[in-house]
Amino acid sequence: MTYQVSQQLEALGDPTRRAIFERLAGVELAVVDIASTLPVSRPAVSQHLKVLKEVGLVTDRSEGTRRLYSIDRAGLAAIRDYFDRFWDTALDAFRRAAEEDVPERPSSSKRPTSRSNRKEQKK
Fold it and tell me: Which residue segments constitute the domains of the chain, with CATH numbers given?
C-alpha cells in the first residue's frame, strides 16, 4: 500500500470526515453547506476538510468570498486502484475455480419416470 493510500484510508477512518467526503460525491459545496447537514461546527468542518485536502481526497476553488470543495478524482483513483487489486485477485480466483474440471456425477441406471408413466406402470 502506498503512503498516500494509507493516509487517505486513515483520514476516512474518522466518521465525520467520511460523512463530509460522502456529501461531496458529485457536487461542490461550501463549508457552510456541509456544516448545515452535520452535528459539528463550521470550524470543525473546515479542519476536517483541511485533512482531506492534505491527503489528496478533496480539492477546493474560490468563488467570490467562498471556497467550494469537491472530491479530488486523482486522489480517489489511488484508493480505487488499491481496492481494484483485491477485486482483480478475487475475480481471477473465481475464474480459475470455474474453469477447473468438475467431476461428473455417477449416472443412475434408473431414470426418473413422469407421473403419467407411473400410472401406466401400475395398470
Answer: 3-75 (1.10.10.10)
* Residues sharing a CB contact under 8 Å with residue 41, sequence separation 6 or more, in sequence order: 35
Alpha-helical regions (H) of the chain: 3-12, 15-23, 31-35, 42-54, 73-99, 115-122
pLDDT per residue as tens digits for the range 29-85: 999 999 999 999 999 999 999 999 999 999 999 999 999 999 999 999 999 998 888
User: 57: buried, middle or exposed (CB in 10 Å: 19+, 13-18, 0-12)?
Assistant: buried
Print burial letters for 17-50: b (CB count within 10 Å at least 16), e (below 16): bebbbebbeeeebbbeebbeeeeeeeeebeebbe
